[in-house]
Amino acid sequence: MIYIRLFLTFLKIGAFTFGGGYAMLPLIQEAVIGNNWMDSSKIVNFIAVSESTPGPFAINIATYIGSETGKTGGGFVGILTSLFGAFCATLGVVLPSFVIILIVAKCYERFKNSGVVIGCMSGLKPAVVGLIGAAVLSVFKTVLLPDGFVFSAFKDAKIYVSLVIFAIAAFLTFKKKVHPIIIILIASVLGILCGYLFGI
Amino acid sequence: MNEKFKKAVKLFITFFKIGAFTFGGGYAMIPLIQKEIVENKKWISDDDILEIIAISESTPGPIAINTATFVGYKTCGFWGSFFSTLGVVLPSFVIISAISGILAEFQNYTAVKYAFYGIRAAVLALLIKAVITMYKKSPKGIISYIIMAAALITTAFLNIPVLAVIIGCALIGLISSVIADRREKR
């Protein structure tokens, strides 16, 4: 049953993501690819959508994947099933947080000074860097080398268009500190221009 | 009961606003939460909110949810946390549910396909920025660097379940801090 699977998958993601947001990407990619829910470029597209809509990434992506995979049929049934899928995934990602914080809030003096918590966190903080790093590599592959590391990829205009847009986006992000939404807008315009010019 | 209910409704409205008006996820919400909850509503003191945020960062789950649940609980118990969490989740849920159908339709248009082609390249830059931000927040030192590299390699190249990687890194952190403690005591 897809809805139970969505709930359980996101329950696991909610329970084991530390540092929030993008740290959950590897878990999400693993689930989405493992279950054959959607292709990886859709996840990358959605990162941009989530940056341009309000709310935490975790909730946005859970709602999105839930509604995309939960949807069966068209018309009114399609809307209802996609809403139910979104509900199951979102409930799953929220529930562990909610329960854990309720427990911690009652005894947080002890939690705060606990050697076990401090010790685990000293391992989890650097782990988050590695996990988001792995997500970067995976997105790198999706964006630049969708067919794997093959020579023919370099004969196509596509890869150079992506590299140039990436360079511009990186320059605006790191040197000019431009807001992500503006960068996404610029990239979309460049994508459309290059698309029609070079027929990528 | 009535007093409590009113407060829960206020919590709901406040967190709904926070959920509806922050772009860029959990960390972007923190300044807004501080302003609304501490300065405007005075539900929680300045020191307490810093502690709540610190704990929200070291418990699993999205930081926005953790903070909302915690603030709600401190302000008015279980129902406070329930309504705060509902408030912070609802805008995302409604907006994304509404656009996911449209998004699926739109992605078939050629112009939209081209736009997303450009956008995906930009997302790569945004994610690299997220790595750098998290690197700055992470402890430095030889064990930290080893954990970073190990998490990266096991997740990206070795096909090891991500859950195992996360638990493994937490255990390495725990063991190394226990060893460091023992050395200090000597």
Structure report:
The complex is a heterodimer of chains A (200) and B (186). Chain A is built from nine helices and no strands. Chain A has 200 residues and is an all-alpha fold. Chain A folds into two domains: 2-144, no CATH class; 146-200, no CATH class. In chain A, helix 1 runs antiparallel to helix 4 and helix 4 runs antiparallel to helix 5. Chain A is globular, with a radius of gyration of 20 Å. Chain A starts with a helix and ends with a helix. The mean pLDDT of chain A is 86. Chain B has 186 residues and is mostly helical. Chain B has two domains: 2-106; 113-185, no CATH class. The mean pLDDT of chain B is 87.
Task: Describe the structure concisely.
The complex is a heterodimer of chains A (200) and B (186). Chain A is built from 9 helices and no strands. Chain A is mainly alpha-helical and 200 residues long.
Please supply descriptive tags for the structure shown above.
heterodimer; A: 200 residues; mainly alpha; 2 domains; 9 helices; 0% strand; globular; B: 186 residues; 7 helices; 85% helix
